[in-house]
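Worked problem 6 (solution included).
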Amino acid sequence: MDKFIYDPNKPLFIGGFGNILLSDDGAGVNIIQKLTDYSINKDISLFDGGTRGLDLIDLLYHFEQVILIDAMLIPGNNASYKEFLITNSYLQIQNPFLSAHHFNLNTVFHLMDALHIKIPYCLVFGIKPISFEPRIGLSPEVDKTCDVIVEKIIDLININLKEVLCKPQ
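Solution. The predicted structure is:
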């Protein structure tokens, strides 16, 4: 996989998606909540996208670099999450990873491509859900995965920042 390289000279959009009423489907939103506990650079926008749909296109249009997090149906039993860049080769694949709810990032990117809307430099974290049980709160396994992804995002951002982000006390 190509590596996502954060450019601190450009605004960064970090969006988390999912339905917090369906346990693990809310993983992306949970990560955004966890990131709000950090002192984040003012040029980084954290966005709780809930179960947004195609209006995400308008949000993405305004950014050159984006990190998106969502629960996704990832084939196989081993990986708790999948990390990938949105590239031209990604756009050639039909439904490589499906969102765990009706909103589908794949659809958003394909529609942007078809409408000739510039797709931002984008890293996606797809989290494999364990439960869609109707309740608020993640399964313990997915919560641990969220912690791993939060640390990965903080590491990605810190690599190219002069000041280190402050971890919550």
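Discussion: The beta strands are 12-17, 44-50, 65-73, 81-85, 98-99, 121-127.
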